């Protein structure tokens, strides 16, 4: 008999939240939603809460009333809490076994760490926690017995390609005394990138592309931040940093290849020369369903992949001249410590400015590089230190923004 898995979805009104809800709805006997969070979209949160009747709901300050009105009678027995601490309360609740983190940006850090510290099964679907404090999270997971399941599609694909003993080692279920990381059997991880909407756009034209064009991702339906990151290839850069943290592997053993069809989600090369890949349609419900039910398999609702309809799979080298974000992210992964946090913060400021039409597409990497040149890297040992560095990098990026805009490149 399947044990009921009590799930909290943080960021339920976003795209990861929507995919998770869809998977959960298909398996009412297996999952029960006991915690939900949404920030600004009170009515959407209220309606979802009325459907699932979670014990605890977290929302932005001043939004509880609107959530309760939208949820109506369905929320009679739900506790609705406001503010960042509410996210932590949900993540650590005794009524929650599994926490799905789909909160965009650095706001997802404290609840993710809280869930790991409470020893939960944690589906890390947002990038920031692993980029900004990956080694800290993995260390805490080893200490508390929390099980971190990679849910970004590429990292979930890598995880699926690993042999069971390695999966057990990574999820904290290995026999005592086992080493961490994926060890000497694995020689290389290859993350695939679709290349985004500007894969073959000439360098000269890239300077003038608009945010609307950048949002038109060819294969994946995602939130605006991730879509723009996919267009600059920073998304893959952040995933490189994530992979190093999750699998305890140096960046020199993580390759990135452009694969425009988004069918092969990633590959693992073994020391004997075998290459194992995970293939599926580009549908986030697949990694989410995998991580929710792991080690079992359940229906995700995704359509079956027709290889003959796909017909051909192409792979090419990424162009770091046209997409410098990839180079910057690799350098940050190599440097480690606080450097990925600085990269991520400067990127968030740059992407917002680009969305607002203030910054050109090719100025995004320029701003990030300037911030990285100025702020020195340091060791990070706590959430407070990470948050402080994040703040400092954002302020500096905002301060430098006008001078980059003025160059007009
Ligand atoms: Mg991804």
Average residue-wise pLDDT: 93
Bound molecules: magnesium ion
Distance between the termini: 62 Å
Identify the quaternary structure here: single chain
Describe it for me?
This protein is α/β, with parallel strands linked by helices and about 400 residues long. It folds into three domains: about 5-150, NAD(P)-binding Rossmann-like Domain (Rossmann fold); about 155-285 and about 300-320, no CATH class; about 335-409, RNA polymerase sigma factor, region 2, helix turn helix motif (Rna Polymerase Sigma Factor, Chain: A), CATH 1.10.1740.10. Helix content is about 45%, strand content about 15%. A seven-stranded parallel beta sheet has the order 4-3-2-1-5-6-7, with helices on both faces. The chain has a four-stranded mixed beta sheet with strand order 9-8-10-11, covered by helices on one side. Helix 5 links the parallel strand 5 (about 100) and strand 6. Helix 2 (about 40-50) packs across helix 3, helix 4 (about 85-90) runs parallel beside helix 5 and helix 16 runs antiparallel to helix 17. It is globular, with a radius of gyration of 21 Å. The structure holds magnesium ion. Magnesium ion binds near residues 152, 153, 154 and 239.
């Amino acid at each position: 008999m399947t044990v009921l898995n009590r799930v909290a979805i943080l960021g339920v009104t976003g795209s990861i939240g929507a995919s998770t809800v869809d998977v959960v709805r298909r398996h009412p006997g297996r999952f029960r939603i006991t915690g939900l969070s949404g920030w600004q979209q009170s009515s959407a949160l209220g309606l979802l809460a009325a459907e699932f009747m979670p014990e605890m709901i977290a929302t932005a300050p001043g939004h509880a009333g609107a959530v309760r009105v939208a949820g109506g009678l369905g929320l009679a027995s739900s506790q609705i809490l406001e503010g960042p601490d509410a996210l932590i309360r949900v993540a650590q609740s005794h009524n929650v076994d599994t926490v799905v983190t789909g909160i965009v940006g650095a706001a997802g850090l404290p609840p993710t760490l809280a869930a790991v510290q409470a020893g939960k099964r944690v589906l890390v679907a947002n990038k920031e926690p692993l980029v900004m404090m990956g080694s800290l999270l993995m260390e805490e997971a080893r200490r508390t017995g929390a099980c971190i399941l990679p849910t970004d599609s590429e990292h979930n694909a890598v995880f699926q390609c690993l042999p069971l003993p390695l999966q057990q080692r990574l999820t904290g279920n290995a026999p005592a005394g086992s080493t961490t990381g994926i060890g000497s059997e694995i020689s290389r991880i290859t993350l695939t990138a679709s290349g985004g909407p500007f894969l073959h756009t000439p360098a000269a034209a890239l300077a003038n592309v608009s945010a609307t064009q950048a949002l038109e991702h060819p294969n994946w339906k995602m939130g605006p931040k991730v879509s723009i990151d996919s267009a600059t290839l920073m998304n893959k850069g952040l995933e490189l940093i994530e992979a190093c943290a999750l699998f305890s592997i140096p960046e020199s053993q993580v390759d990135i290849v452009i694969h425009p069809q988004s069918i092969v989600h990633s590959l693992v090369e073994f020391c004997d020369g075998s290459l194992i890949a995970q293939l599926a349609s580009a549908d986030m419900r697949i990694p989410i369903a995998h991580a929710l039910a792991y080690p079992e398999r359940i229906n995700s609702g995704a359509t079956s992949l027709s290889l003959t309809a796909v017909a051909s799979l192409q792979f090419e080298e990424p162009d770091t001249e046209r997409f410098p974000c990839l180079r910057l992210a690799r350098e940050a992964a190599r440097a480690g410590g606080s450097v990925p946090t600085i990269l991520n913060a400067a990127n968030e400021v740059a992407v917002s400015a680009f969305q607002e039409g203030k910054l050109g597409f090719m100025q995004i990497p320029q701003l990030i590089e300037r911030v990285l040149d100025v702020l020195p890297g340091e060791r990070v040992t706590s959430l407070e230190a990470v948050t402080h560095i994040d703040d400092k990098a954002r302020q500096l990026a905002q301060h430098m923004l006008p001078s980059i805009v003025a160059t007009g490149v």
